[in-house]
Write a structure and sequence with these properties.
heterodimer; A: alpha/beta; Rossmann fold; 3 domains; seven-stranded mixed beta sheet; B: alpha+beta; three-stranded antiparallel beta sheet; 13 strands; disordered N terminus
């Protein structure tokens, strides 16, 4: 920054900052910026400082600046020298031939446009992706909340463009819009923290039923591998007196869980710790909370051999550590079962979500084990065995 | 059965009511009048105190005489007791049992006699130890009627004696006549009680309700009228102290409503509103009309009881759940953003779906609720169509296509075509006592018709 100022390019820095923040997604603008990048190192430097991530969330709040910028570019006689002048000239060109306004359209048109584009690029779920992104850019959850004739203004249009560009790179919609629903909660989502699946919603529901039926409303639970904190937060939201501990191997997941719990006002009853359960001192770290009444986990359970055949959304963007369950997919499950007798009270239960076929393998695992018994297997909404319930004796 | 009736003038005698009611309820805040209720020895069957909060609203808005009726003896007869407590007291007290005037007294007594006989038969069988389930339930049903009826017979005897007295003794005449009137009044009261017991509640009367209003013929004007109706019902709902969730879709052009759906919950909601179902017609000069001509448009109101989970039990095995199909192993290996859910109920073939939420499980819950509503509607319609009746006041789908009411703005009147009752339009649209009175009259009319139907059936069969 100081360097830039010294070079007397402060104004230019400002412009590029705003551009990067708002109109980078527009096809012509990105072209424009590309040219600018080529022609000047300074702009290049500025751009490298603005990460695309900030674009998506910040720009929605500040999208009006996009219009302001374009307006100032339109009148911008003050930037008439050098590269600035080039930018100015380009923008005047854009305005004079009306290219920028061509995209000002209603929701229905936009939806068609982007659905088609996604289809062409082979993005999965083209229609819903486009719907969700457009709705998000308009500040809504779902597109049916927006009337189809609603006219999208220019700056929003540019935001949508930017977000959809990311979808074309197969980024999961949840990461693009930065949030997702889990039961009736809205949770923030952040790359590369694992996105909760509908099966996990079911698991959380089953656990809530169990807590209710065995009167553990004042109990304590442990969520191993909390990710975005979805399971813990749903339980805390369902029972007003229960307390919990959520642990994850990664700091980014712990931070996200903390953030989500704060947003929902549930942080007082949830302790979040960064703990890798494969480390030897796990039990000592949890000492102050012991014993737990129930342990819930959606551990990584995909066998390593299957990892490479995953969809690009999962494979490229979600944390491997949240998916890879080792050779037979049971590495983490084994460790949980090893720890369980030390951290659970007698009669405490373990609730797990696992891969197809794994419930049988787990049954085999605990056959020899005297301290843990296998209680039951529950089915998911596709009526396949998905959830395991075990109990410590 | 001993009945005590407490009639108080609200306002002036507030503290007297308070004293009398103290064993019956907890007086919370004076300003809120009757805001909380405790069940006195499990006798007053009030749900969440709504009865009394209703009363409160009435008192506040009407500022008028309130009749409060309560039974202070043993809780032996649940049924009549509930009845007495739940009746909309005010009109019954002030309008003097209009509903009984057209009923053939002789036939009613004959009917009651046969019921009495039946009860005695059952009682004898009971004592000999031959019990069946049907007998037991019949006995529970008959017992209060017989109780009141025996009281009524006593009164009739007294009445005869008095009449003899009047004929014999000229001096006693004035005194006896006053007493005569009192006894007649008591007999009327008892008849009313019997009427209440005899005309049973529908299965769904206690349920919450879903009220839907759709504009019919008349374009934008019909949509504007739909808005008026929706406002009217919302005011009525707050007048009754119910709670409501509203779902509307606004028409852009005129600002009217293209659709309105009110989920109403509270005390006796379906029972109260069930006669609102039908076509409501409006005659007025629309705002959009420049020539000053009067237009006629309609709105269709339909009301359905809201199912509870207990009413409709859905076996999970009967459900076929469609979600976004993925061929793979599911779980962590699939990352989808399509959360739409479609449910198929295999035995009935009913299909519902939901895609409102980004959470699949929420969508599933929504779809389940919708499925429950649909199955309930089917069952409800089936029950309604088995109700044979020539009644003018019809309930549910039977009367849905029928024009029930006209709102005539130029003549400032609302006419209900079923009972030929006319009220002023502002009163009705303000959704307070005038509408309440109309609804109550419909109820009385319906009750009367049910009773007449019962008596006719009894007459044609000769016995039960």
């Amino acid at each position: 920054m100081k360097l830039l100022q010294r070079q007397g390019c402060y104004k230019l820095h400002q412009i590029t900052n705003v551009i990067a923040g708002n109109i980078i997604g527009h096809s012509l603008c990105s072209y424009l910026l590309k040219e600018a990048q080529k022609s000047t190192r300074i702009i290049n430097h500025c751009l490298s400082k603005v990460s695309i991530r900030t674009v998506t969330t910040a720009s929605i709040r500040q999208r009006k600046y996009g219009t302001v910028l374009l307006n100032s570019l339109k009148q911008g006689t003050q930037y008439s020298d050098g590269h600035k002048g080039w930018l100015f000239k380009q923008s005047i060109n854009l305005f004079s031939n009306g290219t920028l306004f061509e995209n000002q359209s209603d929701v229905e048109e936009l939806l068609k446009l982007w659905t088609k584009k996604f289809e062409e690029e082979g993005v999965s779920e083209p229609r819903t992706s486009a719907e969700l992104i457009i709705a998000h850019a308009l500040g809504k959850k779902m597109l049916h909340e927006v009337p189809p004739e609603y006219t999208v203004d220019l700056s929003t249009n540019l935001v949508i463009q930017e977000l959809c560009q990311r979808r074309l790179q197969r980024v999961p919609v949840q990461y693009i819009i930065g949030e997702w629903d889990f039961h009736d909660l809205v949770l923030k989502m952040k790359e590369p923290v694992f996105i909760p699946r509908p099966e996990t919603e079911e698991l959380a529901d089953f656990v809530c039923d169990f807590i209710k039926s065995s009167n553990l409303q004042n109990g304590k639970f442990l969520d191993i591998g909390c990710g975005s904190g979805a399971i813990s937060l749903h339980i805390l939201n369902s029972f007003k007196t229960i307390t919990g501990v959520a642990i994850d191997k990664h700091n980014h997941a712990c931070d996200l869980t903390r953030g989500n719990s704060r947003n929902l006002g549930l942080n007082e009853r949830l302790n979040v710790h960064q703990i890798d359960i494969f480390e030897k001192d796990t039990v000592e770290k949890l000492q102050e909370y012991l014993p737990f009444d129930v342990v819930i986990s959606n551990p990584p359970y995909i066998p390593t051999s299957d990892i490479d055949s995953l969809e690009p959304e999962v494979e490229r963007y979600e944390s491997r550590d949240a998916l890879n369950g080792g050779k037979d997919g049971l590495d983490v499950v084994r460790q949980i079962l090893y720890l369980a007798p030390q951290i659970l009270s007698v009669g405490g239960q373990i609730w797990l979500e696992v891969y197809l076929g794994e419930p049988e393998m787990i049954k085999e695992l605990v056959k020899e084990n005297k301290s843990i018994i296998y209680l039951t297997t529950l089915k998911d909404f596709t009526k396949r065995d998905r959830f395991c319930v075990l109990e410590v004796q | 059965m001993v009945m005590q009736r407490i009639n108080y003038c609200f306002g002036k005698n507030l503290y007297r009511i308070k004293q009398k009611w103290n064993p019956v309820m907890t007086w919370c805040k004076y300003s809120h009048m009757l805001s909380a209720v405790r069940e006195p020895c499990g006798m007053l069957q009030t749900r969440k105190g709504l009865l009394l909060s209703q009363l409160t609203v009435r008192c506040r808005t009407l500022q008028t005489l309130v009749g409060v009726e309560t039974i202070l003896n043993s809780g032996r007869h649940r049924r009549p007791l509930q009845k007495c407590c739940m009746r909309n007291e005010l009109l019954i007290f002030t309008r003097g049992y209009a509903s009984l005037q057209n009923i053939d007294d002789g036939l009613l007594i004959k009917y009651l006699d046969s019921l009495n006989k039946e009860y005695n038969d059952i009682f004898e069988l009971y004592q000999t130890g031959k019990k069946t389930k049907e007998m037991a339930s019949r006995r529970v049903f008959l017992e209060p009627i017989v109780d009141v009826y025996s009281g009524m017979k006593e009164k009739y005897n007294e009445l005869e004696e008095l009449q003899l007295l009047i004929e014999e003794d000229e001096e006693m005449k004035t005194m006896a006549e006053a007493e005569l009137e009192a006894i007649n009044q008591q007999i009327d009261d008892m008849k009313q009680q019997i009427l209440d017991i005899l005309v049973p509640d529908l299965k769904y009367d206690k349920n919450d309700a879903i009220l839907e209003i759709n504009p019919g013929v008349g374009g934008e004007e019909a949509k504007l009228f739909t808005l008026d109706l929706c406002n009217m019902y919302q005011k009525y709902i707050s007048y009754k102290g119910w709670s409501v969730e509203t779902e509307t879709s606004l028409s852009k052009e005129s600002g009217g409503l293209a659709y309105a759906r009110l989920l109403i919950s509270g005390y006796d909601v379906f029972k109260t509103l069930k006669y609102e179902s039908g076509i409501h017609r409006v005659q007025r000069v629309p705002e959009t009309e420049r020539g000053g001509r009067i237009h006629t448009s309609t709105s269709a109101v339909s009301i359905l009881p809201q199912p509870t989970e207990i009413d409709i039990v859905i076996n999970p095995n009967d459900l076929h759940i469609d979600t976004f199909k993925s061929s793979g192993p599911g779980g962590q290996s699939v990352q989808k953003n399509d959360t739409a859910v479609r449910l198929t109920h295999t035995p009935s073939g009913v299909v519902t779906s939901s895609q409102e939420s980004r959470s699949q499980i929420q969508n599933k819950k929504n779809a389940m609720n919708r499925l429950r509503e649909k199955l309930y509607e089917i069952e409800f319609n089936a029950q309604m169509s088995t109700m044979k009746s020539q009644r003018k006041v019809q309930v549910g789908t039977k009367g849905r296509s029928e024009k029930i009411r006209t709102y005539n703005f130029p003549q400032n009147r609302v006419t209900d075509h079923r009972i030929h009752h006319t009220s002023n339009i502002q009163g009705i649209l303000s959704g307070e006592d005038v509408l309440d009175e109309l609804i109550n009259q419909l109820h009385e009319e319906s009750r009367k018709e049910t009773l007449i139907e019962m008596l006719q059936e009894f007459e044609s069969k000769g016995s039960l």
